[in-house]
Design a protein that fits this description.
460 residues, mainly alpha, 3 domains, globular
């Protein structure tokens, strides 16, 4: 058989090239070389009597996965990683001149011009709202509906979702905006702060529908969005730290020449920068993901043992002193956040794990982490019930209690599945499906505290 004569095979190879080109570490010349190897393997398999489809599938399998090939080339050509993350499109030494010259401006540097334009738009949206409303509390309450539409637009530009998905997400933003602004919240109302927090969670998850191209029922798409969220959080934190240091340095430098720039930094740089950084962090995730592997799973490996030790120490302290049940409301909410971090560590460890590998020491460590988290969760739950019985239901306590129960159910079943996986009686895929299938429950919790809590608790 002569490779290239059959249109079916050419289409398969063209599709394979398209997937390979998604990783920026591979240049067109690299892909040409790999295609040559692929065609040689297909020729050999076809001579042995296989059909084109069979030969193609086996040849691709033997050539290696996209990730494995990308990592191999990344290790060999590490200098490319930096060149592909910089902001210009300087032609490379290996034949990328023509390809770079044909890339439209708005798609260069992995779409950085579009990300920056949307980031500026998000910053201006926050600032214009601040100037028009002149009430920082109301602007903060609307942070999600002011900024996240620009993130959804970024996803829509990159992923080209179906119109139905875009309209569904737009509808969620409209409903949230109406609730946040039409409800008659009393000044400094707890329900207003809860609604603001819930809108961030709910609308963030809804933007994932755009990122998933509307395939929100797909476990794979949900896991991809969870990976994105973890990476985004890491980059946003890094940008915030660098931005804070730069702002402090700017204030100090201008103060040395008796120029007070504090009002400008507080009123313009911080709100606009915080909003714009949402888009820059999202762009960084997409740009780096195509070049090198994710960083959130690596951090998970580091912090899982530390969080396990922290929770074990907390359990020992609670048993010895038993004063956790008398803790304040804010401390109990903080422990809920600790449990959220535990779930995040578990999810990102699952997302980074090779499903084919047998259980190892890290899987057993996760069992210990989950067991200690369950004990902490039960202790916090007892404290919450005790406080509720003594002081009655309030919006904050009820929201925290609901979140605690949701986390308890998640952690309990996750621990059960993790033990089964370590004992080789549960397939690894069930762990992934449990976590991705749980996302709608968090969305429902967030929607409840945005839409239902304010009227139930008198907008107080």
């Amino acid at each position: 058989m002569t490779i290239g004569q059959g249109p079916g095979l050419d289409e398969l190879i063209a599709s394979w090239r398209q997937w390979m080109a998604r990783r920026d570490v591979l240049t067109p010349s690299d892909i040409d070389e790999l295609e040559s190897h692929l065609r040689d393997r297909i020729d050999g398999l076809a001579d042995a009597g296989l059909t084109d489809d069979e030969a193609f599938l086996i040849a691709v399998k033997r050539l290696g996965s996209i990730d494995a090939l990308s990592h191999e080339y990344a290790a060999e050509h590490s200098e490319r990683l930096w060149k592909q993350l910089v902001l210009h499109d300087a032609p490379g030494p290996e034949g990328t001149d023509a390809a770079a010259a044909t890339i439209p401006f708005h798609r260069r540097a992995n779409g950085l011009p579009v990300a920056l334009a949307l980031g500026v738009g998000a910053g201006l949206a926050v600032k214009v709202a601040d100037l028009l409303i002149d009430d920082p509390a109301v602007v903060a309450r609307n942070a999600a509906v002011l900024v996240l539409p620009f993130l959804a637009a970024w996803f829509a530009w990159r992923r080209r979702p179906p119109a139905a998905a875009v309209w569904a997400v737009a509808g969620a933003f409209v409903v949230a905006a109406i609730a946040l602004n039409a409800y008659p919240f009393v000044p400094e109302a707890s329900t207003a702060m809860l609604a603001a927090a819930g809108s961030l969670v709910a609308l963030w998850l809804m933007t994932g529908v755009v990122e998933a191209r509307g395939a929100w029922r797909s476990d794979t798409a949900r896991m991809d969005f969870l990976r994105f969220s973890g990476e985004w959080a890491v980059y946003y934190l890094l940008i915030a730290l660098v931005g804070g240091a730069l702002s402090a340095l700017t204030i100090a430098v201008f103060a040395s020449i008796q120029v007070d720039v504090v009002p400008f930094v507080e009123e313009w740089v911080l709100p606009c920068g915080a909003a714009g950084a949402v888009l820059v962090a999202a762009w960084l995730v997409g740009a780096k993901q195509r070049v090198i592997e994710n960083i959130a799973p690596v951090l998970t490996k580091v912090f899982t043992p530390l969080f396990t030790l922290m929770m074990l120490a907390l359990i020992v302290a609670a048993v010895l002193q038993w004063n956790l049940v008398d803790a304040s409301r804010d401390l109990l909410i903080a422990f809920d956040l600790v449990l959220v971090v535990v779930v995040a560590l578990l999810v990102y460890a699952i997302s980074a794990r090779d499903p084919a590998l047998p259980p190892g020491w890290f899987d057993r460590l996760q069992v210990l982490m989950l067991a200690s988290a369950l004990v902490v969760d039960v202790i916090v739950l007892i404290a919450m019930i005790a406080r509720t019985g003594e002081f009655g239901f309030t919006a904050n306590k009820t929201a925290s209690l609901l979140l605690n129960l949701i986390l308890l159910a998640n952690l309990a079943w996750a621990a059960w599945l993790q033990v089964g996986f370590v004992q080789r009686t549960v397939a690894f895929g069930r762990l992934e499906r449990w976590q991705t299938g749980y996302l709608p429950i968090y969305l429902a919790w967030a929607a409840v505290i945005v839409l239902i809590f304010p009227p139930v608790f008198g907008f107080a």
